[in-house]
Prior knowledge:
By secondary structure, this protein is mostly beta strands. 0% of the residues lie in helices and 43% in strands. The chain is built from no helices and eight strands.
Amino acid sequence: MEESMDVGLWDEHGQPLQRRRDQRISVGSVLPVRLRLLPAGAPPGPWMTADILDISLGGLALLLDAAQPLRQGSSSQLDFSNHPGFPGSPLAAELRWREPMGELQLVGVQLEQPLASLPALVTVNGTEAARADLP
Length: 135
């Protein structure tokens, strides 16, 4: 039997690769957002409520009910209309990963178009962050 290798997950020095292009910032509190799936060749799915756990210019980590059927690679839309500072809603996104957690699930969502800056809802070390260039 052939052994499988984690190709591309480690650099030449054996260190884990950082696969995200953008720094993730913890939101610091639970912030709801609406998410819906866009199945190919079918009407959009119903809106689901998810909580933003962290955010970067290119994506988000969301927590939602495990009863919602989500699949890696699914096209989706995110509605941020309850949060000022986001560009026009809804935003196109792709579900990149999913981790079941009992009655909940954690999902990683990559935005189709990166944000120009992080909205003011994000806090860094207790301070509201209005820009993505904060350390």
